[in-house]
Amino acid sequence: MDLYSAQNAHRTAGKAAPVVDDALLERYTKISSGTLTSQLFKRGLRQQVLVGIRPLNRVVKPFAGRAFTMRFIPAREDIDTGATVTMRPDPVNLQWVGVEELSAGDVLVIDSRGDIRGASMGDILISRMQRRGARAVITDGAFRDGAEISRMEIPAWCAAVTATSRLSYHHVADLQVPIGCAEVAVYPGDVVHGDENNITIVPSYLAEEIIAACEAQESLEVLWSNFGGHF
Protein backbone atom coordinates (compact mmCIF):
# COMPACT_ATOMS: atom_id res chain seq x y z
CA MET A 1 0.00 0.00 0.00
CA ASP A 2 1.38 3.44 -0.92
CA LEU A 3 1.65 6.39 1.47
CA TYR A 4 -1.52 8.16 0.29
CA SER A 5 -3.62 5.00 0.45
CA ALA A 6 -2.35 4.11 3.92
CA GLN A 7 -3.10 7.57 5.30
CA ASN A 8 -6.56 7.80 3.76
CA ALA A 9 -7.79 4.21 4.07
CA HIS A 10 -10.20 5.26 6.84
CA ARG A 11 -12.02 7.42 4.27
CA THR A 12 -12.23 4.80 1.54
CA ALA A 13 -15.10 2.31 1.64
CA GLY A 14 -13.99 -1.30 1.56
CA LYS A 15 -10.33 -0.55 2.20
CA ALA A 16 -8.28 -0.59 5.36
CA ALA A 17 -4.81 0.33 6.50
CA PRO A 18 -2.40 -2.61 6.50
CA VAL A 19 -2.91 -4.72 9.61
CA VAL A 20 0.26 -5.27 11.61
CA ASP A 21 0.22 -8.85 12.89
CA ASP A 22 1.12 -10.02 16.38
CA ALA A 23 4.39 -11.62 15.29
CA LEU A 24 5.62 -8.30 13.96
CA LEU A 25 4.49 -6.51 17.12
CA GLU A 26 6.44 -8.98 19.24
CA ARG A 27 9.61 -8.04 17.36
CA TYR A 28 8.98 -4.38 18.19
CA THR A 29 8.99 -5.14 21.93
CA LYS A 30 12.65 -6.14 21.68
CA ILE A 31 14.01 -2.86 20.29
CA SER A 32 14.66 0.46 22.00
CA SER A 33 12.93 3.76 21.36
CA GLY A 34 16.32 5.25 20.52
CA THR A 35 16.89 2.78 17.70
CA LEU A 36 13.33 3.21 16.50
CA THR A 37 13.45 7.00 16.34
CA SER A 38 16.79 6.85 14.52
CA GLN A 39 15.30 4.71 11.76
CA LEU A 40 12.19 6.88 11.54
CA PHE A 41 14.40 9.97 11.27
CA LYS A 42 16.29 8.42 8.35
CA ARG A 43 12.96 8.19 6.53
CA GLY A 44 12.04 11.80 7.21
CA LEU A 45 9.77 11.16 10.20
CA ARG A 46 11.04 13.49 12.90
CA GLN A 47 8.06 13.98 15.23
CA GLN A 48 6.92 10.50 16.23
CA VAL A 49 7.63 10.60 20.00
CA LEU A 50 4.83 11.52 22.41
CA VAL A 51 6.68 14.06 24.54
CA GLY A 52 5.34 15.10 27.94
CA ILE A 53 3.55 11.92 28.98
CA ARG A 54 4.87 9.40 31.48
CA PRO A 55 3.87 5.93 32.72
CA LEU A 56 1.76 5.56 35.85
CA ASN A 57 2.83 1.96 36.39
CA ARG A 58 5.25 1.11 39.18
CA VAL A 59 6.93 -1.37 36.85
CA VAL A 60 7.30 -0.09 33.29
CA LYS A 61 7.17 -2.86 30.71
CA PRO A 62 7.90 -2.64 26.98
CA PHE A 63 4.94 -3.12 24.66
CA ALA A 64 3.84 -2.76 21.06
CA GLY A 65 0.31 -2.73 19.70
CA ARG A 66 -2.04 -1.40 17.05
CA ALA A 67 -3.46 2.08 17.61
CA PHE A 68 -7.18 2.28 18.40
CA THR A 69 -7.95 5.99 18.47
CA MET A 70 -10.43 8.05 20.49
CA ARG A 71 -11.00 11.76 19.89
CA PHE A 72 -12.20 14.25 22.50
CA ILE A 73 -13.67 17.71 21.99
CA PRO A 74 -14.58 20.20 24.73
CA ALA A 75 -17.55 19.18 26.86
CA ARG A 76 -20.87 21.03 26.67
CA GLU A 77 -23.11 21.23 29.71
CA ASP A 78 -26.37 20.31 27.98
CA ILE A 79 -24.85 17.18 26.40
CA ASP A 80 -22.28 15.87 28.85
CA THR A 81 -24.56 15.22 31.80
CA GLY A 82 -24.77 12.60 34.50
CA ALA A 83 -27.24 10.69 32.33
CA THR A 84 -24.35 9.64 30.07
CA VAL A 85 -22.45 7.99 32.92
CA THR A 86 -22.83 4.21 32.73
CA MET A 87 -21.12 1.42 34.64
CA ARG A 88 -21.41 -0.98 31.72
CA PRO A 89 -21.41 -0.80 27.90
CA ASP A 90 -24.18 1.46 26.62
CA PRO A 91 -24.66 3.25 23.26
CA VAL A 92 -25.23 6.52 25.13
CA ASN A 93 -21.62 6.33 26.34
CA LEU A 94 -19.32 6.35 23.30
CA GLN A 95 -16.29 5.78 25.50
CA TRP A 96 -17.71 2.46 26.67
CA VAL A 97 -18.50 1.61 23.04
CA GLY A 98 -14.86 2.17 22.14
CA VAL A 99 -13.62 0.01 24.99
CA GLU A 100 -15.89 -2.83 23.84
CA GLU A 101 -14.70 -2.47 20.23
CA LEU A 102 -11.04 -2.88 21.21
CA SER A 103 -9.38 -6.07 20.03
CA ALA A 104 -6.59 -8.00 21.72
CA GLY A 105 -3.32 -6.38 20.69
CA ASP A 106 -4.76 -2.87 20.44
CA VAL A 107 -3.48 0.23 22.24
CA LEU A 108 -6.06 2.88 23.08
CA VAL A 109 -4.67 6.31 22.16
CA ILE A 110 -6.77 9.26 23.35
CA ASP A 111 -6.63 12.76 21.90
CA SER A 112 -7.47 14.85 24.97
CA ARG A 113 -6.23 18.03 23.30
CA GLY A 114 -3.52 18.15 25.96
CA ASP A 115 -6.15 19.24 28.52
CA ILE A 116 -5.33 17.77 31.94
CA ARG A 117 -8.19 19.41 33.87
CA GLY A 118 -10.55 16.45 33.47
CA ALA A 119 -9.63 12.76 33.53
CA SER A 120 -9.66 10.93 30.19
CA MET A 121 -10.82 7.81 32.07
CA GLY A 122 -10.29 5.87 35.29
CA ASP A 123 -9.55 2.44 36.65
CA ILE A 124 -12.91 0.81 35.79
CA LEU A 125 -12.57 1.31 32.04
CA ILE A 126 -8.86 0.55 32.08
CA SER A 127 -9.51 -2.68 33.98
CA ARG A 128 -12.03 -3.64 31.33
CA MET A 129 -9.50 -2.98 28.56
CA GLN A 130 -6.93 -5.09 30.35
CA ARG A 131 -9.38 -8.00 30.44
CA ARG A 132 -10.07 -7.54 26.74
CA GLY A 133 -6.39 -7.91 25.90
CA ALA A 134 -5.44 -4.30 25.19
CA ARG A 135 -1.68 -3.76 25.18
CA ALA A 136 -1.73 -0.24 26.70
CA VAL A 137 -3.74 2.96 27.17
CA ILE A 138 -2.34 6.41 26.42
CA THR A 139 -3.64 9.96 26.74
CA ASP A 140 -2.08 13.40 26.39
CA GLY A 141 -4.46 14.43 29.17
CA ALA A 142 -4.96 12.99 32.65
CA PHE A 143 -6.23 9.80 34.26
CA ARG A 144 -8.06 9.50 37.54
CA ASP A 145 -7.52 6.70 40.09
CA GLY A 146 -3.79 6.98 39.57
CA ALA A 147 -2.86 4.84 42.58
CA GLU A 148 -5.13 2.01 41.44
CA ILE A 149 -3.91 2.20 37.85
CA SER A 150 -0.28 2.18 38.99
CA ARG A 151 -0.78 -1.34 40.34
CA MET A 152 -2.24 -2.71 37.09
CA GLU A 153 -0.37 -4.83 34.56
CA ILE A 154 -1.56 -2.84 31.54
CA PRO A 155 0.80 0.03 30.65
CA ALA A 156 -0.92 3.39 31.25
CA TRP A 157 0.71 6.63 30.10
CA CYS A 158 -0.61 10.14 30.74
CA ALA A 159 0.39 13.75 31.38
CA ALA A 160 -1.18 14.09 34.84
CA VAL A 161 -3.58 12.63 37.41
CA THR A 162 -6.82 14.32 38.47
CA ALA A 163 -9.97 13.25 40.28
CA THR A 164 -12.10 15.55 38.12
CA SER A 165 -14.56 13.69 35.89
CA ARG A 166 -14.12 13.57 32.13
CA LEU A 167 -17.61 15.04 31.71
CA SER A 168 -16.45 18.34 33.20
CA TYR A 169 -14.12 19.05 30.28
CA HIS A 170 -14.25 16.34 27.59
CA HIS A 171 -16.80 14.93 25.17
CA VAL A 172 -15.98 11.71 23.30
CA ALA A 173 -16.60 12.77 19.71
CA ASP A 174 -15.26 9.94 17.56
CA LEU A 175 -13.51 6.58 17.38
CA GLN A 176 -10.99 5.16 14.94
CA VAL A 177 -10.19 8.40 13.10
CA PRO A 178 -6.84 10.16 12.71
CA ILE A 179 -6.01 12.10 15.88
CA GLY A 180 -3.28 14.17 17.43
CA CYS A 181 -1.83 12.93 20.72
CA ALA A 182 0.91 14.97 22.38
CA GLU A 183 1.26 16.84 19.06
CA VAL A 184 1.89 13.62 17.10
CA ALA A 185 -0.40 12.38 14.32
CA VAL A 186 -1.79 8.92 15.09
CA TYR A 187 -3.76 6.91 12.53
CA PRO A 188 -5.85 3.84 13.38
CA GLY A 189 -3.68 0.75 13.03
CA ASP A 190 -0.34 2.51 13.48
CA VAL A 191 2.23 0.70 15.59
CA VAL A 192 2.44 2.14 19.11
CA HIS A 193 5.78 1.28 20.72
CA GLY A 194 6.55 1.84 24.38
CA ASP A 195 9.58 1.26 26.56
CA GLU A 196 10.91 2.76 29.80
CA ASN A 197 11.73 6.01 28.03
CA ASN A 198 9.11 6.91 25.44
CA ILE A 199 6.03 6.21 23.38
CA THR A 200 6.76 6.22 19.64
CA ILE A 201 4.33 5.98 16.72
CA VAL A 202 5.21 4.05 13.55
CA PRO A 203 2.97 4.38 10.47
CA SER A 204 1.49 0.96 9.75
CA TYR A 205 2.60 0.92 6.12
CA LEU A 206 6.23 1.22 7.27
CA ALA A 207 6.03 -1.35 10.06
CA GLU A 208 7.91 -4.18 8.33
CA GLU A 209 10.57 -1.96 6.80
CA ILE A 210 11.25 -0.15 10.07
CA ILE A 211 11.52 -3.23 12.28
CA ALA A 212 13.94 -4.92 9.87
CA ALA A 213 16.14 -1.82 9.86
CA CYS A 214 15.99 -1.56 13.66
CA GLU A 215 17.02 -5.18 14.13
CA ALA A 216 19.93 -4.73 11.73
CA GLN A 217 21.06 -1.58 13.56
CA GLU A 218 20.95 -3.21 16.99
CA SER A 219 22.81 -6.28 15.73
CA LEU A 220 25.54 -4.01 14.40
CA GLU A 221 25.67 -2.12 17.70
CA VAL A 222 26.12 -5.39 19.62
CA LEU A 223 28.96 -6.37 17.30
CA TRP A 224 30.53 -2.95 17.72
CA SER A 225 30.28 -3.23 21.51
CA ASN A 226 31.80 -6.73 21.54
CA PHE A 227 34.83 -5.41 19.68
CA GLY A 228 35.24 -2.53 22.11
CA GLY A 229 34.16 0.01 19.56
CA HIS A 230 36.77 -1.10 17.01
CA PHE A 231 36.52 -3.37 13.99
Automatic annotation (TrEMBL):
Keywords: Magnesium, Metal-binding
Keyword Magnesium: yes
Cofactor(s) the record lists: Mg(2+)
GO molecular function, one term: metal ion binding
Residue sites binding Mg(2+) per the record: 145
Binding site for substrate: 122-125, 144
The protein's name: Ribonuclease activity regulator RraA
